[in-house]
Amino acid sequence: MQNLTQDQIRRSFINASRSEVKAINFPAGFETTDWENLDYLGWRDPKMPQRGYLIYPGQDGPVGLFLRAPEGGSGKLRKVLCDLCRDVRCEVVVYLYVARRTGPAGRNGNTVGTLICADFHCSRNVRFEVPSKAEHLDWPSIRQRQIDGLRERTELFISRVRG
Ligand SMILES: [Zn+2]
Questions:
Q1: Rounded distance from Cα 152 to ligand 1 centre (Å)
Q2: Whole-angstrom distance between the N-terminal and C-terminal Cα of the chain?
Q3: pLDDT means per 10 residues in the chain (163 residues)?
Q4: From ligand 1's centre to the CA of 97, what distance in Å?
């Protein structure tokens, strides 16, 4: 995805209040973000770990989602798949992240949830290394399919938030 400034990110949120946007803390090392290898930018707030943020490069500009991890989410290893990357090779910690819906639905307390890698490493997961025993397979297209799938499912989740 293209580089974004912190200002662009703050302006991109579709389901956060002004005070929630104001309170956002960016991750350490934000300046060295590897944008080129990201399908979305996601991070947990370093000071409020119950809050997560996911910024997706939509057709009409970046779309930011304000997410909540479950109360007391201790990050126990669970054998569930992330709904976005569906990474099956490594055991990653997956949280049920909840997003307030936009518009009147959100004001009435309506939310949608989805399972996402706790530390938002989906982009890294779909760009896995080629297993040495399977070098004969067409990895560039396999990897591209994974990347496309991650983007499609992220867009689907955003459309559910927009309801
Ligand atoms: Zn994931």
A1: 13
A2: 25
A3: 97 96 96 97 95 96 94 60 83 87 92 93 88 80 93 97 90
A4: 12
